[in-house]
Design goal:
This protein is about 35% helix and about 25% strand. It is an alpha/beta fold. The chain folds into 2 domains: about 1-155, 3-Layer(aba) Sandwich (Rossmann fold); about 185-309, Beta Barrel (Elongation Factor Tu (Ef-tu), domain 3). It is elongated.
């Protein structure tokens, strides 16, 4: 998979294309990708995804604190895993948003040699979202490409969407989010030094320096898989301010107690895959009562992960 940061850097011929943010690359997105890659590769054509960063909602709604399910790099990697040949992450600006559908599609035709465009059920692009199915089809007759609309993908009686998955995660429903994503939601980052309190109470934790522009689950205790390179370990995660010790803390910490593990991870990249929420973050009257609860969390977490295998 090749990843470009601008259309201006790309020159292709006869590309099959789909366009969208694809935040999370959830099961609805995956249905589009399956159609895209199967059709493109049957024609010996490149399968291309044009996506955007920052998220259009952050720009158009003036929300600099907008949180995504995936960073641009994570999103490109996931798209590659589903068979996409080329990912273009275009910088989203107000200027781009004001571009007409005709100008935007002309630029795409110039750089990708577009032959086939797949769009989702509610897709539109360009100034005032003028580039809907009818307008894109009209432009396709002028620019020599075909438009193929795809039906919405549902999760039971609910249409899958990134915004709904973001709400699930921020409410702590990581297992529900996993059903929509088709995989566990994950946070990745380097392990950094904390205050060392976990080791002092014989429950060592790895403190994750997570991307601040990513959605994190609500404060609480979670069962996770901890991935270090090719290794995968059981873990119990605490997200929050540690109210027993630091009740005035503002930015939540993500601390992983990796079960049956005792190695120095400082500076290494740790990936946490969230399986299930165990409980809310609580303030305990003493270290002893906290330890009793942590031991119970570990026992519960181990049982959940072992039963899930």
């Amino acid at each position: 998979m090749q990843h470009y940061l601008s259309l201006d850097d790309v020159t292709l011929q006869n590309a099959w294309l789909t366009i969208g943010v694809f935040d999370g690359v959830h099961r609805g997105h995956q249905a589009i990708l399956q159609k895209l890659t199967a059709g493109a590769h049957a024609q010996a054509a490149p399968a291309v995804v044009l996506t955007f960063s920052p998220h259009p909602a952050a720009v158009l709604s003036n929300r600099p604190d907008f949180k995504c399910l995936t960073t641009p790099e994570e999103r490109a990697e996931l798209l590659g895993q589903f068979g996409v040949d080329v990912v273009v992450t275009e910088s989203f600006t107000r200027e781009l948003a004001s571009t007409s559908a005709a100008d935007f599609m002309g630029r795409i035709k110039q750089h990708l040699g577009l032959s086939h465009l797949l769009i989702g059920y509610d897709f539109a692009l360009g100034h005032n979202r003028e580039g809907n199915y009818d307008r894109l089809s009209e432009l396709g007759r002028e620019l020599d490409y075909r438009v193929e609309p795809l039906e919405a993908v549902t999760n039971g009686d609910e249409i899958l969407s990134s915004s709904k998955i973001r709400r699930r995660i921020t409410s702590g429903d990581v297992s529900g989010a996993a059903r929509s994503l088709g995989r566990c939601y994950a946070l990745s980052g380097p392990v950094v030094h904390g205050d060392g309190r976990g080791r002092r109470i014989n429950i060592p934790t790895a403190n994750l320096d997570y991307p601040l522009d990513k959605v994190i689950p609500s404060n609480g205790v979670y069962v996770c898989w901890a991935c270090i390179g090719d290794e995968k370990h059981q873990a119990v995660i605490n997200i929050g301010i540690n109210p027993t010790f630091t009740p005035d803390k503002q930015i939540p910490s993500v601390e992983a107690h990796i079960l049956d593990f005792d190695r120095d991870l400082y500076g290494q990249i740790l990936k946490l895959e969230f399986v299930e929420r165990l409980r809310d973050e609580l303030r305990f009257p003493s270290v002893e009562t906290l330890l009793v609860q942590i031991r119970q969390d570990i026992e519960d977490g181990r049982k959940i992960l072992e039963e899930g295998n």
